[in-house]
């Protein structure tokens, strides 16, 4: 169908929501794409980038190339993602450092609603679909329990990390930023972006482009031949990821950012959560979380000697707000 300027503006707004989600380690922009009704078009558009597309450019000109590329869609979406990711990254960093329970509460509510809206798109339930849902949930939950690796700036490793992370970034429920943390490449990439290290940025980008083009073909094929099973796996991914975005955490081990040594958090402080310790010491750089566990709100306050309130009432409000945000995105996605 023919899209108008208003339609592309809405696509850019969806891109802004995706970029904001991807800026938070633990939340996937793919979830937002799915809920807002552009996921399958996005996967199909990416997978159409091949040699024949560039033959069109040379043989028929840029107008035919742009149309076959679905260029207006990609440009509108990427514009929103880039603007949001760059601008929201600083805000996300501040919120994660100073108000972690509140920002995770909002995303927890958002993801709870996502499970419902993606799951309801499964048109036929059978044993295979149920098993796919369970497998997806188990895999995602297991990933959220993995400890982070030490930082690694090897060029080949950074290339592979880019390929893996971009695949996670377009999968609902699995965060590309979180995968980078697990792989030990998040700090390397952050430093490269901060220092404008062109070599490392190009290596990572090359891995991401190759990973994205390859994985999009796999997803497109799965949607075409196993639509319900694919939806079930993706729903399972989102369900399993809830462990990562649970607002109340106990820190088990941390990494010294200067030396790379991994130590038990209890050997550093009597407080139970790194974010509380960082806020009290006003030091957000010395240690990074390696392993953490989800706890109940009351346990969270006890772990931190009641220095940090569980902020239960505000957290519940933000969970509801996150839940309702998905209704708005879903309504936008359902408009023709």
Automatic annotation (TrEMBL):
Membrane-crossing segments per the record: 69-89, 101-118, 125-144, 156-189, 201-223, 306-329
InterPro entries documented for this protein: VCA0040-like
Residues making up the signal peptide according to the UniProt record: none
Source taxon at top rank: Bacteria
Keywords: Membrane, Transmembrane, Transmembrane helix
Protein name as annotated: DUF368 domain-containing protein
Organism this protein belongs to: Algibacter aquimarinus
């Amino acid at each position: 169908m023919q899209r108008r300027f208003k339609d592309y503006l809405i696509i850019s707004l969806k891109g802004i929501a995706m970029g904001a989600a991807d800026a938070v380690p633990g939340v996937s922009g793919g979830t937002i794409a799915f809920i807002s009704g552009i996921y399958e078009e996005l996967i199909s558009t990416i997978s159409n980038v091949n040699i024949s597309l560039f033959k069109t450019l040379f043989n028929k000109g840029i107008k035919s190339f742009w149309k076959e590329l679905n260029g207006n869609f990609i440009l509108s979406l990427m514009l929103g993602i880039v603007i949001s990711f760059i601008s929201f990254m600083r805000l996300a960093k501040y919120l994660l450092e100073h108000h972690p329970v509140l920002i995770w509460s909002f995303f927890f509510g958002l993801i709870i609603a996502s499970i419902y809206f993606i799951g309801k798109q499964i048109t036929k339930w059978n044993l295979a679909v149920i098993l796919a849902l369970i497998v997806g949930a188990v895999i995602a939950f297991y990933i959220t329990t993995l400890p982070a690796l030490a930082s690694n700036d090897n060029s080949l490793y950074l290339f592979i990390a880019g390929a893996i992370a971009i695949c996670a970034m377009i999968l609902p429920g699995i965060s590309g930023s979180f995968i980078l943390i697990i792989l030990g490449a998040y700090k390397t990439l952050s430093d490269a972006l901060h220092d404008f290290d062109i070599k490392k940025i190009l290596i990572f980008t090359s891995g991401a482009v190759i990973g994205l083009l390859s994985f999009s073909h796999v997803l497109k094929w799965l949607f075409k031949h196993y639509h319900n099973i694919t939806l079930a796996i993706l729903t399972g991914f989102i369900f399993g990821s809830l462990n990562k975005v649970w607002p109340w955490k106990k820190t088990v081990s941390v990494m010294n950012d200067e030396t790379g040594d991994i130590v038990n958090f209890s050997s550093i402080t009597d407080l139970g959560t790194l974010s509380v310790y960082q806020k009290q010491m006003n030091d957000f750089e010395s240690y990074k979380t390696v392993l953490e566990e989800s706890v109940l709100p009351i346990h969270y306050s006890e772990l931190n000697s009641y220095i940090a309130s569980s902020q239960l009432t505000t957290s519940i409000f933000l969970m509801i707000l996150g839940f309702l945000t998905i209704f708005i995105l879903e309504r936008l996605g359902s408009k023709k």
